[in-house]
Amino acid sequence: MTTPKAMSSTQAIGVFDSGVGGLSVLREISAQLPNEPLIYLADTACTPYGEKSKEIVQALSLIACHWLVKQNVKALVIACNTATASAIDAIRTCYPDHLVIGVEPGLKPALTRSKTGVIGVLATQNTLNSIKFKRLVKTLRYQSPKTRFIFQAGEGLALLVEQGKAHSKACESLLSTYLLPMMEQGADTLVLGCTHYPFLVDAIHHIAGSRLQLIDTSEAVAQHLKHKLTERGLLNTTALPSTPYFVSSSSPTHLAEMVKKLLYLSVQAHAMQSLSDPPL
Ligand code: DGL
User: Fold this and answer.
1) 215 alpha carbon to ligand 1 midpoint, in Å?
2) 138: exposed, middle or buried (C-beta count within 10 Å: 0-12, 13-18, 19+)?
3) Domains of the chain, each with CATH number or no CATH
């Protein structure tokens, strides 16, 4: 038996997504855990993950986590529903000493919020097809047999967010084709089952007005992370608040532009390939 590697509270937290979607989770983590040094890794070279095979998403996620672990992080946040669905078990097996936090579409909170009992779920095809997601749906159907879920793959949406087109006409018309049929069937609640989709909130409101209440789990994920860090004695209470360290597997310039656009932060981003030593 190997001795578990001891982590220290001063180590950074690694946050990873296929691209810029995980910034919606990072935003909440920064707000709730301002003393934690954060490294954000966007696998923009391989985005989007949503239509890739489970095996490929798993391999890409392991490469990303391996890189973050090499930067000496104490925890890994898989800020991507698709990567969580395909790879979290493999990541936990590879890094048993690390705290590994994933994300999943907020079907549970949606159940308590919906009045009509009809809930739209927008997620990548990969997430919807995953065993993990199917298991979650099965459990909730058992608990709440009258609830009706309408599942919709958001094909094309993550890519539009990546391209900085979240507020474009093209994005709004694609979204309409996904949302209008749900609303016609009585949905009053929409689960944002991909971390890119919180950046589509303006477009969704434009289409649906106040007819759809939106379920975004990023706040709950940050709370859960805080709770788990506290439980393990790994909460950093000493470091001064600092800007996260942004890393891209393709273009750091594009990532910096997107951070400015989506989080209103002016930052410098770095290339994954150029960093082999811990940045923090
Ligand atoms: N942001 C990701 C998710 O939460 C993946 C989007 C994609 O790469 O297709 O599922």
Assistant:
1) 16
2) exposed
3) 13-103+219-271 (3.40.50.1860), 107-216 (3.40.50.1860)
- C-alpha–C-alpha distance, residues 140 and 134, integer Å: 10
37: preceding bond cis by omega (within 30 degrees): no
3-state secondary structure of 264: coil
Per-residue pLDDT band for 279 (boundaries 50, 70, 90) equals low
In contact, 72 and 95? CB cutoff 8 Å: no
Question: Are 124 and 84 spatial neighbours (Cβ–Cβ below 8 Å)?
Answer: no
Average pLDDT value for residue range 51-56: 93
User: Residue 204 forms beta bridges with which residues?
Assistant: none
Q: Tell me if residue 65 is catalytic.
A: no
* pLDDT tens, position by position, 57-100: 999 999 999 999 999 999 999 999 999 999 999 999 999 999 99
Residue 242 has pLDDT above 90, yes or no: no
Q: What is d(CA 55, CA 226) in angstroms, rounded to the nearest whole number?
A: 31
pTM: 0.95
Of 198, 167, 234, nearest to 103 (Cα)?
198
CA of 85 to the centre of ligand 1 (A): 10
Pocket test for ligand 1, best of 26, 81, 129 (most atoms within 8 A of CB): 81
Strand-pairing partners, residue 15, are 40, 77
Q: Are 42 and 22 in contact (CB under 8 A)?
A: yes
Q: What is the whole-number distance in angstroms between the Cα of residue 44 and the centre of ligand 1?
A: 11
Whether 63 contacts 4, CB under 8 Å: no
Q: Quick check: is 171 catalytic?
A: no
